[in-house]
Write a structure and sequence with these properties.
Elements (H helix, E strand, L loop, with lengths): L10 H4 L12 H4 L4 H8 L5 E4 L6 H11 L3 E6 L5 H16 L4 E6 L6 H5 L2 H5 L4 E6 L3 H4 L2 H4 L3 E4 L5 H13 L14 H10 L4 H16 L6 H8 L11 H15 L3 H14 L3 H16 L5 H16 L5 H13 L5 H16 L14 H5 L40 H23 L1
Parallel strand pairs: 1-4, 1-5, 2-3, 3-4
Helix pairs in contact: 3-4, 10-11, 10-12, 11-12, 12-13, 14-15, 14-16, 15-18, 16-17, 16-18, 17-18
Length: about 425
């Protein structure tokens, strides 16, 4: 009986670095004197969390560290594993310990373990039964419990640069044993960079794209720009709804608008929409920006964002997205002021600190005879009957807060006029108060 030929591992797995010298990228961790480089050279391992986007070398680093420490490597994926698998790993680690050998427990996608599952291996990390290495694409501060974080160092891996991925692809073309093999596509440097750019910082994706191109060429298609476009297809940018990449991009949009840079603002808007962010969410954030960063410096900002949201609701995608772009540019170019935001925050703090102060009697409603007998509304001055429609010297605060000022308009945009008006009104109040003394 003829034995079946074992399946060939994917190119990305075949090209997995076997040493630190073959590892590409993450110089901030693997450069001379850097923390993981020191661990690899010394073999002194510590439990750690590797946090970064897909295809940046988290699993490879775990394997290299295990080899450097001459440790048994026990790999699990939190997608499939549970507490039972952790217990089996611990049992195996105890046996290795009796033989004088250490164990590295690598848990991929560690953020998928709940708190109880994460707690299951903590005692064995604590007593040195095993060295724990976790890999995650999610922010450890939110995805992992504090007990685990206190026992493991967190290292951040960055998305690979285009040049780094280009080096990976060139290595796969040049390696006769593990690489593409023959027939080999004769890619130009420009075509190689095109594939590397399409990988969007993910080394695994880049190697998979190269593998696809090689398969298409082996199947009889001539290497061309059209073939590359077919191989790349719709290359989606990195985005994680509700995750760090999502909130980082929202933050970048907000800060670009606040910084009055319409071009950067448009770029981050398009990044969000390209990544699949709900345009209604973007519209909601633009409305917030209109009040928080512009406010009364240009009240049209709020109207502009609400109109854009309404236009998107009516038109949908992609037509309505242009209205969001219009509002984004308007916000970026508008005069800026956070006076309204700081005033609202200060007033909210006063409410929290002073509690339920009584409404002054002259400001209370008096809908009944009893309310009138109690003095509700008595001595209230109707502003429209006063000179200039302003009851100079009147107090609208509860006792203890008279004279407080929360809103301090800037000298930008319409707020400059508002500031002038408030200065005049406050001068009238002072003049009335001085005359009553």
């Amino acid at each position: 009986m003829t034995q079946a030929t074992p399946p060939i591992a994917p190119l990305a797995e075949r090209m997995r670095p076997r040493s630190a010298a073959e590892f590409v990228g993450q110089d901030h961790l693997l450069g001379p004197g850097k923390p993981i480089r020191v661990m690899l050279e010394s073999g002194n391992l510590t439990s750690l969390i590797l946090w970064g986007p897909p295809g940046t070398g988290k699993t490879t680093l775990a394997r290299l560290l295990s080899g450097a420490g001459d440790a048994e490597f026990f790999g699990l994926s939190a997608v499939m594993a549970g507490v039972k698998d952790v217990r089996e790993a611990v049992a195996a680690a105890r046996e290795q310990r009796l033989r004088g050998r250490s164990t590295v427990l690598f848990l991929d996608e560690v953020h998928r373990f709940n708190k109880a599952q994460q707690d299951a291996f903590l005692p064995f990390v604590e007593d040195g039964t095993l060295t724990f290495v976790g890999a995650t694409t999610e922010n450890p501060s939110f995805a992992l419990n504090n007990a685990l974080l206190s026992r493991a160092r967190v290292f951040v891996l960055n998305a690979l640069a285009v040049d780094d991925i280009g080096r990976l692809l060139r290595a796969a073309l040049d390696d006769p044993d593990r690489g593409i093999g023959h027939p080999q596509p004769e890619l130009t440097d420009a075509q190689l960079i095109q594939l590397a750019s399409a990988a969007d910082g993910d080394g695994r994706r880049g190697l998979n794209l190269l593998d696809t191109v090689a398969a298409m060429v082996a199947g009889g298609r001539a290497l061309s720009d059209a073939l590359l476009e077919d191989a790349i297809g719709s290359s989606l940018r990195r985005f994680d709804k509700g995750g760090d990449v999502f909130y980082d991009q929202i933050s970048a949009l907000h800060k670009s608008v606040r910084g009055s840079d319409p071009d950067a603002s448009l770029y981050w808007l398009q990044r969000l929409l390209d990544g699949g962010c709900d345009p209604n969410y973007v519209a909601r954030r633009l409305v917030r920006i209109a009040s928080e960063d512009i406010g009364n410096a240009d009240p049209r900002a709020l109207t502009s964002t609400l109109d854009a949201w309404d236009a998107y609701t009516r038109l949908g995608s992609p037509e309505g997205e242009l209205a969001l772009a219009q509002a984004t540019v308007f916000l970026a170019c508008a005069a800026k002021s956070n006076a309204l935001y700081t005033a609202a925050s200060a007033a909210a703090e006063a409410v929290r600190v002073h509690g339920s102060l009584e409404v002054p009697a002259h400001l209370r409603n008096a809908p009944t005879a009893l309310a009138k007998q109690l003095g509700h509304g008595e001595d209230y001055r109707y502003a429209h009957d006063e000179p200039d429609g302003f009851a100079a010297g009147e107090n609208y605060f509860p006792d203890g807060l008279t004279g407080q000022m929360y809103y301090h308009p800037t000298d930008r945009g319409l707020e400059k006029k508002i500031a002038e008006k408030l200065a005049w009104l406050r001068a009238q109040n002072r003049q009335r108060s001085d005359g009553n003394e």
